[in-house]
């Protein structure tokens, strides 16, 4: 956070630390837009490939493979990588007395929640499909309007139960429902040849989906900016996100089918490293932010360290989910933009080759 005052007696406020063009017009809208579809499309794609793997390997080998490919990395994060990263962030980066496992944090959540959820979904699907005699559920490809109606229902679900964390789902029951629907959609699409039928969509339908996706993206960006700036409810954004998740997924699937036809050496490299990138990127990003804070100090910029216990105002400003943070004293926001560029570029330059190397290590090749 970039604040006007980072002294020990300063108060964390929206006016003092969050009134930046980068946060209001770029950061928050981008997060809202990305969260609307990104992980759900992952679940759809994972569900799409599950039937072929189950048919080829059989239930026992299918489950064993999922435990190895998903269960082991999930355990590695929740029991080792996650807790050790938080311990490092607290004790080293923030200077807060903290040891591994303190306050019950020997299990620590994080981005790999997707992996453990995917393991559960895959095992449930494998068992149900086998118990049902291996007979696929025949469902004709719905019309575009039907898909969008499903999006409306998902949007209403987004605002109904709230966003209180629900087991491993950081954004609550709505995230559970959305991810389950998209995973089931991927399975159904594979069993019924939906993707081949989607290729036959006429030009007007494709253009309508593209225009709708662009319109909804712009609307989410605008409403997310307004709700964050005025500190008001983002109910409208969440409803629209449900429709956007479906429209954007259909649009992107069609776009990649048409444009990205070949597999270059760069694409193969990134494909081999992508899973490991997902697992280790929080560590690399943490080091990048830590390095940037030290660089600012070296140039004489005042940098403080805080958490919600030190600055209760963080919770009042809606930042309660941020456990630890740097406070940088600056009247403008040039260093904020520079920090984003530094953290992003360093993370990208480091994490991809590092992940590729880890994935190729003996013993990890069959897991990652």
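Q: What amino acid sequence fits the structure above?
A:
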């Amino acid at each position: 956070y970039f604040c006007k005052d980072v002294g020990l007696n300063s108060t964390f406020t929206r006016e003092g630390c969050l009134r930046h063009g980068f946060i209001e017009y770029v950061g928050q809208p981008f997060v809202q837009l990305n969260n609307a579809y990104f992980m759900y499309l992952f679940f759809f794609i994972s569900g799409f490939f599950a039937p072929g793997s189950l048919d080829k390997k059989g239930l026992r080998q299918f489950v064993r493979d999922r435990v190895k490919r998903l269960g082991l990395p999930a355990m590695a994060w929740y029991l080792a990588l996650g807790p050790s990263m938080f311990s490092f962030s607290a004790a080293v980066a923030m200077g807060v007395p903290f040891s591994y496992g303190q306050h019950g944090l020997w299990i620590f959540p994080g981005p790999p929640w997707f992996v453990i959820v995917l393991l559960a979904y895959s095992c449930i699907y494998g068992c149900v499909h086998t118990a049902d005699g291996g007979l696929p559920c025949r469902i004709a490809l719905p019309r575009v309007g039907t898909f969008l109606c499903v999006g409306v229902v998902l949007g209403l679900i987004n605002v109904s139960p709230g966003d209180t964390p629900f087991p491993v789902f950081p954004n609550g029951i709505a995230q559970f429902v959305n991810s389950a629907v998209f995973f089931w959609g991927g399975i159904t699409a594979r069993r019924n040849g939906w993707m081949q039928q989607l290729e036959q969509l006429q030009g007007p339908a494709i253009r309508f989906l593209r225009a709708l996706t662009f319109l909804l993206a712009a609307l989410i960006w605008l409403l997310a900016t307004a709700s964050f700036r005025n500190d008001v409810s983002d109910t409208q954004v969440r409803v629209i996100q449900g429709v956007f998740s479906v429209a954007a997924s259909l649009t992107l699937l069609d776009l990649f089918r048409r444009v990205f036809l070949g597999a270059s050496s760069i694409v193969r490299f990134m494909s081999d490293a992508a899973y490991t990138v997902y697992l280790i990127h929080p560590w690399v990003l943490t080091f990048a932010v830590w390095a940037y804070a030290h660089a600012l100090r070296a140039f004489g910029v005042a940098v403080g360290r805080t958490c919600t216990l030190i600055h209760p105002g963080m919770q009042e400003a809606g930042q309660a989910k941020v456990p630890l943070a740097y406070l940088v004293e600056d009247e403008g926001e040039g260093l904020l933009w520079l920090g984003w560029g530094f953290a992003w570029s360093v993370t990208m330059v480091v994490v991809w080759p590092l992940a590729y190397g880890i994935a190729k290590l003996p013993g990890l090749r069959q897991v990652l």
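Q: And what stands out in the fold?
A: Strands lie at 2-3, 303-307, 324-329.
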